[in-house]
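Progress report, Aim 2. The chain analyzed during this reporting quarter is listed below.
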Amino acid sequence: MSNDDENRAKSLRQPPKETQFKKGQSGNPNGRPKGSKKLTREMLIEKLNKTVRRVENGKIQTLIRP
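Predicted structure tokens for the chain:
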């Protein structure tokens, strides 16, 4: 192994060949679990449709999105 190869193997941008993923191998073989929600639209809709209660002048008000 030459000096250039040793420096390249030790750098942060290029991990050693032994620890790199092999061709065709995924970095996340199991993927996202089934039934998990996407973090964008579904969660936003769920939060917006939630009823909110607040206390104003000693009275409880329930706010519902129309």
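Residues 34 and 65 are 30 Å apart (CA to CA). The chain has a mean pLDDT of 76. These observations will guide the mutagenesis work planned for the next reporting period.
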